[in-house]
Amino acid sequence: MDPGTALAIVGLVLDGVKDVYAYYSTWKDRDEEVAEVRRALLWLIGLFQSIEKTLANKNLEDDKVTIICNSVKECEAVMAKLRKRLNKVKSEAPPDSFMARLSDQGRRAIYPFQKGTIVRLLESTEKIRDQMHVVLALLHLDTSTRSLEALEDIDRKITSVSAQAYKSVMDWLSPTAQSEIHEAALRRHEVGTGQWFLGSTTFENWRADPGASLWLCGEGLEPIKIFIELDGADLNKSVAAKLCYSRPLKGTQHDLASILRTFIAQLCPQDHIPSSLRELYDHHSSKFPPSVPSDVELQDTLLALIGEPRQALDPISKDREYQPKPRYLLVDALDELPLGPGRDHIISYFHGLAAMNIPNLHILATSRDESDIRAGLHSWHDNFVIDKKKVAEDMRLYVTSEINKHEELSRQNDSIKDLILRRLVEEGNGMFRWAALQLEELKALRPMKPRSINQALQSLPADLDETYERILTKIPAGNTQEALSILRWISFATRPMFVEEIMEICAIRLEEDPEFEIEERYQARDILNILPGLININPPLKSSETPLAQDHALRQPFFFPEFAIEVWKKEYAFDHHSLPVYKFHPVRPENAEIRLLELFPSAKRYGEIRCRIFHVQLDSNPHYDGVSYARRPNDGVGCIRANGLLLQLPMALVQDLRNLRAKTGSQGRVLFLWDIHWDNSTYLVKWQLGLNSRIFKEAQQVAVGLGDKSEKDQDAIEFVREIGTLFIQEIASIFASRASVSGPTKEVPANRGHKSLPDGIGNAILQLFQRPWWRRMWPVQELMLPQKATLYYGDEAILFDSFQRLFMSQITIKILIGERDYSVLVSDRAWIGAQRISLVRARYLLGHHPTLPELLWATEFHLATDRIDKVYALFGLLDTDEQDSEFLVHEATKSDEENFINVAVHIINRYRNLDILSYASHHRPLKTSLPSWVPDFSVAGDEARPLFGGTFGPSGSRSRFNVGGSKYTCPALARDSRILVVQGDMFDDVRILFRAFNDFESEVSLSDLYAAVKDCRAELTPETFWRTVQADQKDGNRLEEPNAKIFEPTLSQDECPEFGFCKGRRLVLTSEGHLGLVPVRTQAGNKIVVLAGGKVPYILEQMPEGFEMIGECYVHGVMDGETLKSSVTCEEFCIY
Fold first, then answer.
1. Same structural domain for residues 1014 and 1084?
2. Where is the Nephrocystin 3-like N-terminal domain (predicted)?
3. What percent of the chain has pLDDT over 70?
């Protein structure tokens, strides 16, 4: 073989290997099989690139050329087979964001991830390695872990990303802006300072020891010095060190997520998106609107980016470990985080992260010595108390540098300079801030003469407190109120405040009329002049949004000592009158006593919310409205005035109370709020929950707070009002106008006087249903129990009846908003949940008590903070008989799993059928500790559409099948109530699996699938095939008699009349020749059983001790009880 031919063969294979490697890179780190095949492919890339480079060398010796060409010729056949397999893998559609969420079982159904595919790829690699061993020795190719860095470089080039892709990921991640704080820290950094620490044994040990953590306790050493020592000064280009400042700019919330986002962004290289971050981005950005990652997801991503020890890429060297590069996480000023749960969560996280002892991770945090931080970081490997004497050496360098940089001070004689140094450094006691303030005083001296400098130094304040007192005494008498307002706001704000906000605050006079005068607003520079040295502005005033804050957190205890950390948990309230906090008086459960709130009217929308709280007995038939609301994302705390005292409530509730408040009148609005009624006393909790249904049932109405108005969904409210009043002629007219008229709006015919229909109305409706209230569990019974429900969108009231008309106007909505927007809307989970609840509520108000399974179906997509609330938040809607079931007693001592098992047993016993098995087959996470026959009631259903509703569906729904016939025998529970014993017949098993129907794979060609099944079963008819892929049903009914056109096997997927039941399933042939539609997780050899009383067959997997249920299935020819005849003897199945 000549070199040209060898180059061509190697080039073809190399191109294929690169493409397939990029394909598998989407699944990088997903499991060991994928990692192994990636290692093998990456080794091949390195081999073939070396051969290419060698053959391209014109000066290569002839004997070496001959050896290489002969080796290539020897393995030409192997490489041809490899190329064929590579092309087959490449024929798969490229993975997209949906595929990133594909389950492992579903993924293994497609060719690239089948066990045989991976095994054959690895075998081909081994054969090439064996046949090319001479070339390996000739070219001195390194197959050990020493070649890892070169291979990783290939990996980065193959999976490199564009600048736009990187920007998209960063825009979605939205890390906290750090650059401005970092640049300010660099400006403050004095070369040569901090060497006493950087040269210490403590620092060297922390830097060298695997998994080390260090807490720098005290003041005077900024992490910027450590950062520069580790990795230079550029925050964006650093390789090892990552630095997060605890004082983020531009109003970012001080929570764990913001810190995690910051570190993740710094760890992500600009030319390469790591797979863990790419998967997280794909998962959330594919949704509409894009969702926000949870703290747990961010924590997992950060761990992946840090890089725990992993196997070397070379498949031969699996016994060798590769240690990732060291990572240094520096967290600055934990003490400057606002006190509260957010700070506690952050400290707890870093405590746990350090406890993992990740070998390549080194964590360092700085803060003052505060009790909660010391307690939270007690298990860290080491802590280092900063020596004030050492800090004094840095202070000397700093003061000397400031003197030399100042034009006037630098001209003073050496004796004056020495005097300044001596006074500021020796008397500073390690307080950098104190020294800086005194320098500012000296710089302001005019004229600057030795005598005036000496006098100023003689009269220096003794400490920071005295320094602050002097600054305050210099505030002009006319500005004291503004100064006090500024200090109050910035001392207790949970984020840095903007100068513009402070300018507005200074123009407010609550005791005057009007309360706000725009002419009284200060200029930005005036704010600094009022409190010189006490506040700073960063970045400088050139920015359009400029945060303003105290210069250091240590000032808060001086100005407001009662807020020191030791007393933070006490319920203080702070306003301009120093009001005490409202304290609740206990209610008396024996008298069915509740707390009510009378909300006083106010003409000022943003005026103070005032109310009175009083007790009343339900037996006295009080008149009140129940309030239903849901917390919003990033919800904070607000205050109202109750009985003249301050009362803290969730900010979302405060907003809703403002919207519920009357503008005029002398009588207040009486409301019931769970937040003022709930008592955490153990003996009262059960009583309060039991009283909940009565409270809302006897309310005059429920007032639902949706939150303040928004431009995103404001048009939707008007649409909801109008939808019920449109006539068919008008709808047709609108439809015609939308088809023929272009422009920003489509006009409704003028004879009815309806408003114009804006563009984007479909998205506005979708956004309206993204408000949190629609998907929370507890509001369900709060909505359904009263006869009347009013929703408040801002201060605009709209009856829930309008929404019920909306849900009943599906055809009208489809015409008005267009088929595309309609398809997105009706597939949204919040919309589906609201529509189901509306249906159940309508029947409930007519006297129909919903069953527990019906309510579970209606709230399938609702959310609850506690898993068990997905069940127990519905109890108030059940009839008394069902509520009294012994299996529905909520025992706090039992786990959620034990309670879920009891609920499942209750449903089986009460409704005397096996419908729960079908429900369980769609409500089972991949990892669960529950028995396979028990649903996880806390999760939404999977992508597969249930074959029937039955008990778990709207009232009156019926099953289209009756596989089990009339032979129902009540199941029994064995041993520890985790084993379900049922009667039935194992009539068949799975023999051949076909490709799965799944959105995450390439489009399934029905004609090809029909041909594949036909090859395995020659007697297959088109009718059997089509009835199976449609689960023999349409629109809730069995399919009619066959239509020749419908059953043409050449129809495409899009032409199929109903394809929804295939999603999440696959076709199989059984040993007896039946064609079936089964769950994706089904494997060859699984048993198909018909259970007595079951509506459909079930797939079971044989286990050593019994059976595990895989899920419900459709098997053509047995769906009407053909197998379970009276002559068939039922056997017993133990399902675990």
1. yes
2. 192-368
3. 71
CB hemisphere CA count around 810 (13 angstroms): 8
- Report the alpha-carbon distance of residue 1119 to residue 914 in Å, rounded: 15
| Tokens read off for 725 | 């009043």
Domain identity same for 418 and 375: no
Residues 403 and 410 sit within 8 Å (Cβ to Cβ): yes
Strands 213-217 and 382-385: parallel
* 437 and 311 assigned to the same domain: no
H/E stretch holding 225: helix 223-231
Query: Does residue 497 have a pLDDT over 60?
Result: yes
- Cβ pair 125, 13 in contact under 8 A: no
CA separation for the pair 293, 261 (Å, rounded): 10
Report yes or no: 771 and 829 within 8 Å, Cβ to Cβ: no
Closest CA to 260 of 321, 174, 361, 165: 174
Which residues are within 8 A (CB) of 818 and not within 5 positions of it... i.e. 6 or more apart? 738, 762
Q: Residue 580 — pLDDT band, cuts 50, 70, 90?
A: low
Q: What residues form DSSP beta bridges with 327?
A: 361
pLDDT (mean) for 1063-1090: 94
Mean pLDDT is lowest, of 630-639, 710-719, 813-822, 1061-1070, for 630-639
d(CA 1085, CA 1097): 16
**How many residues can be counted in the chain?**
1136
What is the spatial distance between Cα 169 and Cα 206, in angstroms, rounded to a whole number?
Answer: 33
Same-domain pairing of 202 and 151: no
For residues 175-196, average pLDDT: 70
| H/E element, 882 | helix 880-883
Does the predicted model carry a pTM greater than 0.70? no
φ, ψ of residue 488 to 5 degrees: the values are -60, -50
| Nearest Cα residue to 428 out of 401, 458, 461 | 461
Of the two residues 487 and 756, the one the predictor is more confident about is: 487
SS3 355: helix
> 179 and 150 in one domain?
no
- Other beta carbons less than 10 A from residue 458's beta carbon: 8
Residue 328 corresponds to which tokens in the numbers above? Answer: 């240094």
List the domain range (segments joined by +) for residue 635: 589-700
Same domain, 237 and 220: yes
484 shares a domain with 432: no
Torsion sign across C-alpha atoms 413, 414, 417, 418: negative
Give the single-character DSSP code of 423: I
Please give the pLDDT value at position 743. Answer: 46
Residue 972 has pLDDT above 80, yes or no: no
966: number of Cβ within 10 Å: 10
Distance of CA 848 to the CA centre of its chain: 38
HEC profile of 677-692: HCCCCHHHHHHHHHHH
For residues 1133 and 584, the model is more confident at 1133
Distance of alpha carbon 342 from alpha carbon 676, whole angstroms: 24
In a domain, 878, yes or no: no
- Find out whether 977 and 1085 touch, Cβ atoms under 8 Å: no
Residues 6+ apart with CB under 8 A from 881: none
**Given CA atoms 18, 22, 24, 29 in this order, what sign does their dihedral have?**
positive
Q: Specify the CATH number for the domain of residue 516.
A: 1.10.10
CA-closest candidate to residue 420, choices 457, 459, 449, 393: 457
921-927 contacts at long range (C-beta below 8 A, 24 or more positions apart): 921/1079, 921/1098, 921/1109, 921/1110, 921/1111, 921/1112, 922/946, 922/1111, 926/103, 926/104, 926/105
Q: Which tokens in the block code for residue 737?
A: 């106008």
> 67 and 34, same structural domain?
yes
Task: Report the CATH number that the domain containing residue 232 is assigned in CATH.
Answer: 3.40.50
> pLDDT of 727-784, one tens digit each?
544 555 555 555 544 444 444 443 344 455 777 899 999 999 999 999 999 999 999 9
Locate tokens 């992993």: which residue? 310
